[in-house]
Amino acid sequence: xxxxxxxxxxxxxxxxxxxxxxxxxxxxxxxxxxxxxxxxxxxxxxxxxxxxxxxxxxxxxxxxxxxxxxxxxxxxxxxxxxxxxxxxxxxxxxxxxxxxxxxxxxxxxxxxxxxxxxxxxxxxxxxxxxxxxxxxxxxxxxxxxxxxxxxxxxxxxxxxxxxxxxxxxxxxxxxxxxxxxxxxxxxxxxxxxxxxxxxxxxxxxxxxxxxxxxxxxxxxxxxxxxxxxxxxxxxxx
Length: 237
Description:
The protein is of the alpha/beta class. The protein has a domain at 3-118 and 191-221: Rossmann fold, CATH 3.40.50. The protein is 48% helix and 15% strand. The chain contains nine helices and nine strands. The protein has helices at 15-26, 33-43, 46-56, 63-74, 92-105, 119-127, 144-147, 166-188, 202-219; strands at 3-8, 29-32, 82-86, 110-116, 131-132, 158-159, 193-197, 228-229, 232-233. The strands form three sheets. Strands 2-3-1-4-7 form a five-stranded parallel β-sheet, sandwiched between helices. Strand 8 and strand 9 form a beta hairpin. Helix 2 (33-43) packs across helix 4 (63-74). The model is unreliable at 221-237 (pLDDT under 50).
């Protein structure tokens, strides 16, 4: 049975770092929306070219296009052993579409992990965050290379994001909370939904996250995957 995980959490919660670590430890694909968008554009797929035109016009990629790109990626052979998805879904419509993709794959349940961190800690983290000026990767504050002000991926100089000032950070967190509340409500009642305390040291977060995913996978009973009926999820058999 495949291990299919999505990571949720506000900016600064560390979900990207934890997603990458969990995927590496379990031998799973770590898939981010940014990565698959760039891949689709590079491969010049029809959906990739559509997304490129939207991005070049300065607009956000619409749900239908994003869903199509994610569907293509998750149905590729190398994703059939499982994945860790970071940055998707962002809306209830995307979550409903992901349920359909999981049902189509028919290869393991969808496990949802919400990384929760109190706002004061998020503000502190984001206002001191650094990114690579070359590749754009977030610097891991617990990595020794960050102290050298160099990116561990490409060696580029680390700089502060222009939107990481405290005032802007608080506005971004408020927008995130408002936008994702319906999505959390959509998933909250599922037996495979878990919340991990992201304010702990990263090692402890990783340990708890791993245990939670394993527990959620055991909860999923064998047999038919739960599906959607309208906007609700059918009960498990």
